[in-house]
UniProtKB/TrEMBL annotation:
Signal sequence bounds: none
Name of protein: DNA mismatch repair protein MutS
Organism expressing this protein natively: Neorhodopirellula lusitana
Domain DNA mismatch repair proteins mutS family positions: 700-716
Top-level taxon of the source organism: Bacteria
Record flagged with keyword Phosphoprotein: no
PROSITE patterns with a match to the protein in the record: DNA_MISMATCH_REPAIR_2
Family statement drawn from the similarity comment of this UniProt entry: Belongs to the DNA mismatch repair MutS family.
Binding site for ATP: 626-633
One Pfam family matching this protein: MutS_I
InterPro entries: DNA_mismatch_repair_MutS (IPR005748), DNA_mismatch_repair_MutS-lik_N (IPR007695), DNA_mismatch_repair_MutS/MSH (IPR017261), DNA_mismatch_repair_MutS_C (IPR000432), DNA_mismatch_repair_MutS_clamp (IPR007861), DNA_mismatch_repair_MutS_core (IPR007696), DNA_mismatch_repair_MutS_N (IPR016151), DNA_mismatch_repair_MutS_sf (IPR036187)
Length: 884
């Protein structure tokens, strides 16, 4: 093995399962199996080293400037990559150039701008489960008893948070965080990866989650004595261990410092609106269901932020709306002030447009991956602060006042950076020539000398040409001889005696003179000294910026916050949204509510606004019937989205709104395809519904869309019926239930807090005209056949469907006696449950039972009656649909 291959294998061993990108001159090379994998994924040509040997080594490579693009491809394909750099100048190296793995890149540890979407956070998460000690209990712990610590961090910003959650909520929390990569403990069976989730899973050894070591490492990183002060009190061990797991992984994979991780936020300290993963998808908060893009989702409408940091914070705000009335009002007051003050809003947004992504710039400073251009961008951003601060002075809302107080101007740093750096700086310090003339006298002198020397050489060439009469005499340069005089063979006889011959080429000869050598010395060393001097200046500026890390991070957060508030104000002003009155109860009163996304995407005035009042007087459960395509789903989603926006602190698309703050929002909307997770559509629907029934509280808001349609009509209707009863009797939460089971309308007669609503339509010449208006009362038809025609079902199929429908309706009419369904609780006298679809009422057995006189029967006669009934009639009881 050559020394270089030995070096390669050492590096490969240190980076585990990551593919190794090995820097060789201007190329990155991959070897052996790595080369084969990379060739397949990256489309590189597979070649081999030592072709003539018995065992040639497979290799593939690419030019160094293409690193970003190949890293991105590899990470998208779910791989990790280690970058092994040459860490000394090959010119200075004695023997083999030293190489080191400088970083391991995985989906959760990206920092390079080229690899990240500036508008999206990129979290690395870790999960760690702790099962409670079974105090004499024989059965295994339930998912609600198992405590799971989840920690999440963003290397490109320094954000770090952790919390403890019951195992049953882990999937929902991960859906909220939406991490790029999740670390799990290889010996922990409770948190084994769910590979159907859209993030990559990385297994880590048990020791990296050890409690003591985690606590120590975190205290050291955050420079604190204990974690209690941050809110991690008793019972926080799972969170601390998960956070320790994240930190250990970052320390393992990043060779640079992690100085920008300065605090660990305790998630459990500030509760947020709980939204499970299915609801998040159904409501299309951050992404649309179909294409997974932010355009068409709620985020796409409200993200009017002008800075990338603002966009990322807005995504976080929408993912975790608030529940504390004070915290909501704090934000909403600021939004309100910015809506009311158009000039202030416009000015703030204009100033922010000229800033750079300070959060990510600071992360690069902390991790030691910064260059002159980053420092210049920090200077420009600081340059905008005095005007921003002045605009935010004397504000009314506490939140804007607080933001203003956190905009630290850092005047000395700004002056130094501005004075030192050229307007147009290179990405990397190695490129040189970024320090402004006049900033450093020593550098200026060296540059002058270098420049002057070159000029001297030009003059010297002219002088020699004049003195010798050799018109094509040239001064040239190469690395072996340095500067030389080149004379063509034809002019050889004019060479003066003091020229010293150095090299003979085919058509010319090369000479040096003592005078030329003397100047060469000055020029070359001045150039070199100038570039060394520039590196020293850069290192000083970087250190000075690093010393301001804490205050600058506060500035970065403040910029993002004011951007988010101004963005929410902008969208509110542009689309005529109003500030909702947030109440500490379970009532919703929306007048003229609109769907935030459809309202914006449709032509102005096309969207039909609707009211929604959910209260004990007007009904807490609204059953909404109406034709297909009438707007039922849109309506119920719009109520959920308005509630969510209100709890974010935003204005809402309505003429007026009063919103009782919800603790959870549940949405069971549409069938999501979960076949990849081994569950049928109906099963998924039931799992999600079960979760609602088991976890909703009286303060929750529940949105149900066509529950039960994935099974037979009777099963579906019965389930929908029972679910509505349960929500009414046991939970009492605000519920909007869109359904095509018109039979459910009968529930209004027996359940006092159920109200029937429908979407108005007009029939005109066998056509349905959708009015999209929600009115009181239930609908009697679904107009499915008319809607199918609109969708392009062939006319003959449509006509036949009409015939079948007419027959079914006629048959059904003969059996439409409304039967009495026993109430769920048998002793509730007088409750009449009517169900029209079931044909029980005219069943002979029912008639016989009602005719029989139990008082005159002996117990034996009663038993015989039952026996006979069972033998003769049971099959038709079990299949009531055949009775007609
Ligand atoms: N309030 C409204 N104003 C204007 N157009 C609307 C309104 N509500 C819905 N629409 C339009 O009607 C379409 C269908 O709406 P939606 O999906 O809510 O109907 P639906 O009643 O739930 O239908 P289905 O029962 O077939 O699921 C929407 O895509 C939108 O274009």
């Amino acid at each position: 093995m050559t020394p270089m291959m030995r070096q390669y294998h050492e590096a490969k061993e240190a980076c585990g399962d990551a593919l190794l990108f090995f820097r060789m001159g201007d190329f990155y090379e991959l070897f052996l199996d790595d080369a084969k994998v990379a060739a397949g994924i990256l489309g590189l040509t597979l070649t081999s080293r030592d072709k003539d040997s018995a065992n040639p080594t497979a290799m593939a490579g690419f030019p160094h400037h293409q690193l970003d693009q190949y890293l991105q491809k590899l990470i998208k394909a779910g791989y990790r990559a280690a970058v092994c750099e040459q860490v000394e100048d090959p010119k200075q190296a004695k023997g083999l150039v030293r190489r080191e793995v400088t970083r391991v890149v995985s989906a959760g540890t990206l920092t390079d701008d080229g690899l990240l979407d500036p508008r999206e956070p990129n979290y690395l998460a870790a999960v760690f489960a702790v099962t409670p000690k079974s105090k004499g209990k024989k059965s295994a712990a339930t998912p609600a008893e198992i405590q799971v610590g989840i920690a999440w961090a963003e290397l490109s910003s320094g954000r770090f948070e952790a919390g403890v959650f019951p195992k049953s909520r882990v999937e929902d929390e991960l859906a909220r965080i939406s991490p790029a990569e999740v670390l799990y403990c290889e010996d922990d069976p409770q948190t084994h990866p769910d590979l159907t989730m859209p993030w990559s899973w990385t297994s880590r050894p048990g020791w990296s989650f050890a409690l003591d070591a985690s606590e120590k490492a975190l205290c050291k990183q955050l420079a604190v004595k204990g974690l209690e002060g941050l809110g991690f009190e008793e019972g926080s061990a799972p969170a601390i261990r998960a956070a320790g797991g994240v930190l250990a992984y970052l320390q393992d994979t990043q060779r640079g410092s992690l100085d920008h991780f300065r605090t660990l936020m305790c998630h459990n300290r500030s509760p947020v609106l709980q939204i499970d993963a299915a609801t998040r998808r159904s409501l299309e908060i951050n992404r649309t269901m179909r294409t997974g893009s932010r355009e068409g989702a709620l985020l796409g409408v409200v993200d009017r932020a002008v800075t990338p940091g603002g966009s990322r914070m807005l995504a976080d705000y929408l993912a975790a709306p608030l529940v504390a009335p004070d915290a909501i009002a704090y934000r909403a007051d600021a939004v309100s002030e910015l809506v009311g003050n158009h000039m202030l809003r416009a000015d703030v947004r204009k100033i922010l447009t000229d800033t750079y992504d300070l959060t990510r710039l600071l992360a690069r400073i902390a991790t030691g991956r910064t260059g002159p251009r980053d420092l210049r961008q920090i200077a420009v951003t600081l340059g905008g602060l005095p005007t921003l601060k002045a605009r935010l002075t004397d504000r009314v809302s506490d939140c804007l006042v607080e933001i203003e107080s956190r905009l630290h101007l850092c005047p000395e740093l700004r002056t130094s950076l501005e004075n030192a750096l050229n307007d147009d700086c290179p990405l990397s310090a190695a490129e040189g020539n970024f320090v402004r003339p006049g900033f450093d006298s020593e550098l200026d002198a060296l540059r002058e000398l270098a420049k002057g020397g070159k000029q001297w050489i030009a003059e010297y060439q002219q002088r020699q040409m004049d003195e010798t009469g050799i018109s094509n005499l040239k001064v040239g340069y190469n690395r072996v001889f340095g500067y030389f005089l080149e004379v063509s063979n034809a002019q050889k006889d004019k060479i003066p005696a003091d020229f010293i011959r150095k090299q003979t080429l085919k058509n010319c000869e090369r000479y040096i003179t003592p005078e030329l050598k003397e100047y060469e010395e000055k020029v070359l060393s001045a150039d070199e000294k100038a570039s060394t001097r520039e590196q020293i200046i850069f290192a000083d500026l970087r250190q000075m910026t690093h010393d301001h890390l804490a205050v600058l991070q506060e500035v970065a957060t403040s910029i993002a916050r004011v951007d988010v508030l101004a963005a929410l104000a902008e969208v509110a002003a542009q689309h005529h949204w109003t500030r909702p009155r947030m109440a500490d109860d379970s009532v919703v009163r929306i007048e003229g509510g609109r769907h935030p996304v459809l309202d914006v995407s449709m032509k102005q005035g096309e969207f039909v606004p609707n009211d929604c009042v959910l209260s004990p007087e007007t009904g807490m459960i609204h059953l909404i019937t109406g034709p297909n395509m009438a707007g039922k789903s849109t309506y119920i989603r719009q109520v959920a989205l308005i509630t969510l926006l209100g709890q974010v602190g935003s204005f809402v698309p309505a003429e007026s709104a009063e919103i009782g703050i919800a603790d959870r929002i549940f949405a069971r909307v549409g069938a999501s395809d979960e076949l990849s997770r081994g569950q049928s559509t109906f099963m998924v629907e039931m799992v999600e519904t079960a979760r609602i029934l088991n976890t909703a509280t009286s303060r929750s808001l529940v949105i149900l869309d066509e529950i039960g349609r994935g099974t037979s009509t009777y099963d579906g209707l019965s389930l929908a019926w029972a679910i509505t009863e349960h929500l009414h009797e046991q939970i009492g939460c605000r519920t909007l239930f869109a359904t095509h089971y018109h039979e459910l309308a009968a529930l209004q007669e027996t359940l006092p807090r159920v109200a029937n609503m429908s979407v108005a339509v007009k029939e005109w010449q066998d056509e349905v005209v959708f009015l999209h208006r929600i009115v009181s009362g239930s609908a009697d038809k679904s107009y499915g056949i008319q809607v199918a025609r609109l969708a392009g079902i062939p006319p003959q199929v449509n006509a036949r469907a009409k015939e079948v429908l007419a027959q079914l309706e006629a048959d059904h009419r003969d059996n439409l006696d409304r039967p009495t369904i026993a109430p769920p609780n048998g002793n509730r006298e007088g409750d009449k449950y009517q169900l029209t679809l079931f044909g029980y009422a005219d069943h002979p057995l029912i008639q016989q039972i009602s005719n029989v006189d139990l008082d005159s029967m002996t117990p034996m006669e009663a038993l015989q009656f039952l026996q006979k009934a069972k033998q003769g009639l049971a099959p038709s009881i079990q299949s009531p649909q055949h009775t007609s």
